[in-house]
Write a structure and sequence with these properties.
The protein contains two helices and 30 strands. The protein has 359 residues and is mainly β.
């Protein structure tokens, strides 16, 4: 027999009698690995016991995106109200007054912190611009950089020098943060979705509407590989802090986990019945959180894919981000205001286990 595992099915066809036992032994080994991969450790199951749940309100309209700075003490958000805000957050609690960043003339669709500084961040908008900010300067914009299209994606290189911006026309613009201008533009012949740099900065991963992840060397921009990851468009991507695993979410409702050395699929998670919008690794890469059009966030053990927690949200999730210092998750979605929660659409939710509560 020859056997191949596809999802939960084993496809087998006859070869020679001599090889029968070898192939059956191999299949048994693969199936055993599958069974083991469905398990989650007791420490992972109990970590989120007693998780806190809090709300941060301040925006006037729907919140689109959230991002933590490198220390986990500041949380940035972008909104349809054309502003970004920076919140001082400690152990999941918002302290003091937020900083409001104004200047965009359209919805702020993405926010991203400089990976080398806890003070600098960038915002992009449908107004065809990127704005750079330094919170030490208060709410004053450091620079406004015009781009070629309506921007929807943003990725900051680990060295802090280059920002990749994707727009609705599938153009990726590269901004030099020292020169404060666009230094190159690349047009893709397909839908370009979320992008991610490798932790060492040598690779740029680009998800596409054709179900592939395009692997590009940096700084040459040479295409290294086109990896067929999903049967429908790939919308979301993240890499673990060590750069060893790549999580990809798609319109086919799946999350796939990939080894970044050989680009082999380690496992898939199929607990969402609707398209996946965002995937994010926690600090240390222990967990992977998935937000989708379902009304919950799935939190999986990143080693096995087994469910460690399920967070009910009451609405689809648009953006989520783990704190880099604690197992705390910030998220925003499509929640509608109600008598119980009139700020549901304009607030940020905080959930998780602050380090000051762990023993």
């Amino acid at each position: 027999y020859e056997g191949v595992i596809v999802g939960n099915e084993v496809l087998v066809r006859v070869t020679s009698t001599k090889q029968r036992r070898l192939h059956l032994d191999t299949l048994a080994s693969h199936l055993g690995a599958q069974r083991r991969s469905s398990r989650v450790s007791m420490s992972a199951l109990t970590l989120f016991d007693g998780a806190i749940s809090r709300e941060i309100a301040g925006h006037k309209k729907k919140v689109h995106c959230v991002a933590w700075n490198l220390s986990g003490r500041r949380l940035a958000s972008g909104s349809v109200d054309q502003s970004a805000r920076v919140w001082d957050v400690e152990h999941g609690t918002c302290l003091g007054k937020e900083l409001e960043l104004k200047g965009h003339s359209d919805s702020v669709d993405q926010v991203c912190w400089d990976p080398t500084s806890g003070d600098r961040l960038a915002t992009v908008s449908g107004d065809k611009s990127l704005r750079a900010w330094d919170v030490r300067s208060g709410s004053n914009c450091v620079a406004a950089i015009n781009t070629s299209g309506e921007n929807i994606n943003l990725a900051w290189h680990p060295d802090g020098v280059t920002i990749a911006i994707g727009d609705r026309e599938d153009l990726v613009s590269f901004v030099d943060t020292r020169k404060l201008r666009v230094v190159s533009i690349r047009k893709f012949p397909f839908e370009v979705n979320e992008m991610r740099w490798s932790p060492d900065g040598d690779i740029l991963w680009v998800t596409t509407g054709t179900g592939t992840v395009e692997v590009h060397a940096w700084p040459s921009s040479r295409k290294m590989l086109s990896m067929k990851a999903h049967t429908a468009g790939c919308y979301a991507i993240d890499v673990d802090p060590l750069g060893r695993k790549l999580a990809v979410g798609g319109a086919d409702t799946l999350v796939s986990m990939w080894d970044t050395e050989e680009y082999t699929c380690l496992y898939t998670v199929a607990r969402s019945g609707k398209p996946v919008r965002v995937v994010r690794f926690s600090k240390g890469g222990d967990f992977i959180a998935t937000g989708s059009e379902e009304h919950f966030i799935d939190i999986a053990d990143s080693q096995t894919g087994a469910c460690a927690a399920k967070l009910s949200t009451g609405a689809a999730t648009n953006s989520l981000a783990w704190s880099p210092s604690e197992h705390i998750l910030a998220y925003v979605g499509d929640a509608q205001p109600s008598k119980i929660d009139r700020h549901a659409r304009t607030s940020i939710r905080i959930w998780g286990v602050p380090s000051d509560t762990m023993t």
